[in-house]
Amino acid sequence: MQFKPALLAGKEVKIYVWNKVRGVNKDPSFAKFEPSVSSELEIYFNEEHQVQNRLFHYPEEPATLYLTDLRKSDQEQYTIVISYVDYVGTPTEYIIELEVQDVCFEKPKTVDKCAVTTCYTGDNGVLKTPDDREETVNGLKVINVCENRTTGNYYCCNAKGRCIVQGE
User: What is the pLDDT of residue 126?
Assistant: First the structure.
């Protein structure tokens, strides 16, 4: 998942703050990037938000934030607030309603004559291949289907046995 807001043309960003809805009287910010101070993204509440090692930021793409290995617990409303240098008025704010499916396939991409996709299952999932093999999936598994490999239906299943199918 990525947050990639549009920025005001010709304006320098002072700070980006990413928020997640939390309880009453709690600071909702869970990440902050202040370009003039550091090229590093500051992450708060790692344990509560379970984003440590899953939240990525690239200084060359300052407005974009990547959250990898999405989980059901990530599903809720997020807000990004952008404050500009020398800008008077209300900061720009984006609200993102994130819906996370408990099992899904990423849309396949073609890489070197292979169809590459990812099976997301959460913990203790299973990937069933066309040749009747079952592979354990803990979170996600990348699948490369090339011309010289087995093609057919792949089943991506979560721990509760809910499966989706994707034909290759």
Answer: 92
